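Section: Multi-chain targets

For targets with more than one molecule, the full set of components is provided together so that the structure can be written out for the assembly as a whole rather than chain by chain. Components appear in the order listed by the source. The example entry contains three components.
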Amino acid sequence: MSLSWQKIINLDRRIIYVLISLAVIIPLMKPLFIKVNITPEVQAVYDTIESLPPGSAVFLALDFDPAAKPELYPMAEALLRHAFRKDLKVIGMTFWVTGAGLGEKVFSDIAKECGKEYGKDYLYLGWKVGDYALVIGMGEEGISKTFPKDHYGNSTGDMAILQNVATLKDISYLIELAAGDTIGTWYYFGRLKYNFKMGGGCTGVIAAGWYNLLKIDWINGFLGGLRGAAEYETLINKKGTATGGMDAQSVTHMLIITLIVLSNIIFFVTRRNK
Amino acid sequence: MMMREKPAANFFMGSYMAEALLLSECGASTGAIQIAGSDSISQLPFFITTCDYTLIGEEFYAASAYLSREPILVGTLKAQDLAKGFLLALIVIGAILSLLHLPAWLDVIKDFS
Amino acid sequence: MGIFFAVQYYIPHPVTDKMLTDLAVWFRIISAFALGLGIVSLFHVHFVKIKRRGPAWGFSIIIFVSLFGMLAAGIFCNGIEVSTEAGKLTIYGWLYQNIQVPLQSTMFSILAFYIASAAFKAFRAKTKEATLLLMAGLVVMFGRVPLGELIWESIGQFKIFGINLPPSLGDITGWIMKVPNMAAQGGISLGICLGSIAMALKIIFGIERSYLGGGKQ
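Its structure, encoded as tokens over all components, is:
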């Protein structure tokens, strides 16, 4: 193998890190504004929410922590904007203790933007220990019995939003934003027993596995990774951080593809020379 | 710790989420031999690119039986294989019935599974 | 208990549903104790490390400072991030939004760099299977970003017998994700699920006791 090919094949990791940094930073500073095409999976979630009559209850499970924030937080923002625009009642909670603060922030920021009233138009239950036991509790005993106090310590029994939404049987659509395996919990202990429609959102890494769930009718649609969030922002006509991030992701993907193709070309050339 | 201690071999066994690539790439940069086994399907591609050997899916369960030859583990493996054979037979029968458009029999298979 | 939970799923009767609901309350109580146990265990491990001046014991001090700092802030502010009267961040909220969230996000953002270097060093078409994997990976990577779709669309399409050729990149990527990817994932999941069922049954029947910390009997 000649010295120059060897140098490229054994390229220092740090050079690759610098190239990736530039590929991420430059498009964020100088956006490309490339159009995002809509996929059927994301369109299905949008159509489901769009078809719900005003006043219907939507449950938003924000099961992610700050590690998945770049991908799932924009999804939560876009979904909340859409739900509030349709005058739907939104109840939120999380299974991840480190994500409780993120849920609080997204609800309060978007509700303020859309002029919605806490306790009447939306409710944030926060985090509580219990995992699937909480789902069973909310389905059998009731939401206010399982969460006697919301994230802020207010009593949930008197809240106007829960007057028509006593248990999980009364919700029209549940959207699970997952960074892990919580979709199974919501399906087995929630959807199978209480028959609500379910949609989802997940990080790009686990999105490949969610096509199976779509096929077996666990969910009717999902938003996969930052791309899914960007598509939803395009659908609701309100561009946010996801659309901005897609430019950076585009350039980074092209860079990685270029590096892979280059390494394979060098591999074949040097193998032939041997 | 890996950069400090520079282990010669790393074994990644169990359930991993996003930290799989963080750990395995760090280990790969130290030049350690790496073997991974996980039930987390989403992390398998990362393990495959950074580890020398990867146990995929049920190989993770079979590896312990293969190495130790303990009767309980080998017996469990045999039971898993029998169950898998039964499920595969159901899948094949269901596929054939679906191709022949026999809805009544398909409903039986669906109810059973 | 394990057998009851497994069997209860197949008995849709109000009595079993009530028993499940009551057991769920017990589960929540036990989970809360498990959380406390985890914290005590963490405390013990790092306390011993500091006492014995083990390797990297300085990081154990940082763990204690972080743990007790957040605990104190959380108790002081009652676990609330935003003061509802003033609409301002509490101390706990400030620590969460300005320290924990950026640090945790950054930790996992490092993956972007690692995947690039791992892909450059490892994705070689050495065998037929590796070539297939590589081609599928490149197509999906290219097709999942708007820039890739834009480049593909610039090639243009024409119709032959009512079929668009070449197919759109979204269709190709969608087919790869929905057909071969789903088949492979399903196959691997089948094996993993059977293994998990076997492991669960062994734990329920007491055959597998390694989780209790015991040795071979």
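Chain A has two domains: 3-30+249-273, 40-239.
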